[in-house]
Design brief:
Elements (H helix, E strand, L loop, with lengths): L10 E8 L2 E7 L3 H17 L8 E4 L4 H4 L5 E5 L2 E5 L2 E8 L2 E8 L4 E6 L4 E6 L1 E2 L5 E2 L2 E5 L2 E5 L2 E4 L3 E4 L3 E5 L4 E5 L13 E5 L2 E5 L2 E3 L12 E3 L8 E4 L2 E5 L2 E3 L4 E2 L9 E5 L2 E9 L1 E10 L4 E4 L13 E2 L2 E4 L6 E4 L1 E3 L4 E2 L3 E4 L4 E4 L13 E4 L4 E5 L18 E4 L5 H11 L1 H8 L4 H12 L8
Helix pairs in contact: 1-5
Length: 450
């Protein structure tokens, strides 16, 4: 049993033999990097806890608190994924009968997923939080997560869409509302966003008709066809927040129609949008060049090639820097939940069914982000149709891996499988690494579902 550390260079963390499993982990980073990472996760948050409470809480990976949610946001920050908001159905027994009411997750709480150690943490947030929301959208610029829009249901404030923007300082873990100049976006939910060169872009959404539609003369609005929903509409707004001001950039090309519950991904200077709903569900595919502000409708090079079915409440995630995208799940035109992963290859200009999983699970109204290299992680959502009386919520995260796990994660799996013998030996490793390993070994059920 030994370890050796070389400051500022790649270092060999440990070499342990447990039940005939010899484990070596080679980490190409510095001790200073790991120490800064641990300070960000634990020390700084502990200092900001009120009343002596610990605001960082290790979570069971299968905890309903994590996964029983839809309409939430998930963003990548450093080596973590930040999950916030959304709602679930809360069953209550009253007057000899069961009732189901939507329960909106607390606004002062976020879930952090550590992509390297595969561990969940719940974190309490301070400051001026937004209301409890579902269907909001979020993006990260530097150390800030920006949050816009969503649907609010509050017993005191009532039910409505919001058009406010909030900032979560990811270093201080504190909320504050942003007051921006210029014409604000329409109040809506189920929109998408991305961040590019320090600007926060929004597109589409579903919400109430504006009081003065002429005020948004460049935005196309489409009414909901249902007789009870004539006061609500889809939109095709494209707006960005830049230096504290809302801007409405001019675009050229084949602009997408109004829509909501679509999905977007950013690769380099190109934003991609797939599907969504405008009365019927869609399977059209668009690209916006953020340098030229030109829209292009993307079509497969072979018209006879298979394409994904029309859908909403799906996810679209960048796989690499070359424009390859992963489309997953959603709700199709026949009101059926989907479990079909597709890959868009820009080099061949085609969609291909993904074969990473032999039996991919159903997911709709979920959130997805990149994990480690070659990996996409799906959080929350439903594992059955939303139209059922009692829809089935996802019971865990789904990992879609194009490449094998990193060496350190493979070693952690072995340690996790031999906890009783592993724990006494972990303390012979450098302290920042030991802290992460212990967090993994003590997080009951930390192994993901897929």
């Amino acid at each position: 049993m030994s370890y050796r550390v070389v400051t500022g260079l790649c270092y060999f963390n440990f070499n342990l033999c447990c039940h005939q499993h010899c484990i070596g982990v080679w980490r190409c980073s510095t001790m200073e990097h790991d120490e800064e990472r641990q300070r960000w996760m634990f020390a700084e948050h502990d200092e900001r806890c009120e009343n002596g409470e610990n605001c960082v809480e290790p979570m069971n990976a299968k905890s309903p608190k994590l996964h029983r949610r839809v309409g939430h946001v998930a963003v990548k920050y450093k080596n973590f994924v930040v999950v916030w908001g959304g709602y679930e159905d809360d069953e209550q027994y009253d007057n000899n009968a069961y009732t189901r009411e939507p329960y909106y997750h607390p606004a002062d709480e976020v879930m952090l997923y550590d992509c390297e150690y595969e561990v969940w943490h719940g974190v309490r947030i301070h400051g001026d939080p937004p209301p409890r929301l579902c269907g909001a959208t979020a993006g990260v610029i530097g150390d800030r997560m920006l949050l816009f829009g969503g649907f609010m249901e509050d017993r005191q404030l009532g039910t409505s869409n919001v058009r406010t923007v909030y900032e979560l300082d990811l270093n201080k873990m504190a909320w504050k509302q942003i007051w921006a100049d210029g014409v604000p976006p329409l109040a809506c939910d189920k929109l998408v966003s991305w961040c590019y060169e320090g600007k926060f872009y929004l597109f589409g959404g579903f919400g109430p008709w504006p009081d003065d539609p002429g005020y948004y003369r460049d935005v196309r609005l489409a009414a909901h066809p249902g007789a009870m929903r004539e006061d609500r509409c889809w939109n095709d707004q494209l707006v960005r927040l830049a230096d504290g001001r809302w801007e409405w950039p001019e675009t050229r090309g084949d602009r997408p129609t109004p829509r909501a519950a679509h999905a977007a991904a950013l690769v380099g200077s190109r934003a991609y949008i797939f599907g969504g709903r405008l009365g019927n569900r869609l399977n059209d595919f668009y690209c916006l060049d953020l340098e030229t502000m030109v829209w292009t409708k993307l079509e497969p090079s072979d018209p006879a090639a298979p394409v994904p079915a029309a859908r909403s409440w799906h996810s679209l995630t960048a796989l690499d820097d070359h424009g390859r995208l992963l489309l997953y799940g959603g709700f199709d035109a026949l009101s059926q939940p989907l479990a079909d992963p597709w890959i868009w290859s820009p080099s061949g200009q085609r969609w291909s069914p993904c074969t990473w999983l032999s039996e991919p699970p159903i997911r709709m109204w979920h959130a997805a982000t990149p994990g480690e290299a070659g990996e996409v992680v799906l959080f929350g959502g439903l594992a059955s149709s939303v139209l059922l009386d009692q829809p089935t919520y996802a019971s865990g995260s789904v990992f879609l891996r194009e490449t094998p796990k990193s060496l350190i994660r493979l070693c952690l799996d072995v340690l996790d499988a031999n906890r009783e013998t592993s724990v006494p030996l972990v303390w012979f490793t450098p302290s920042p690494l030991a802290d992460g390993i212990i967090a993994r070994l003590t997080a009951c059920g930390s192994k993901p579902v897929v």
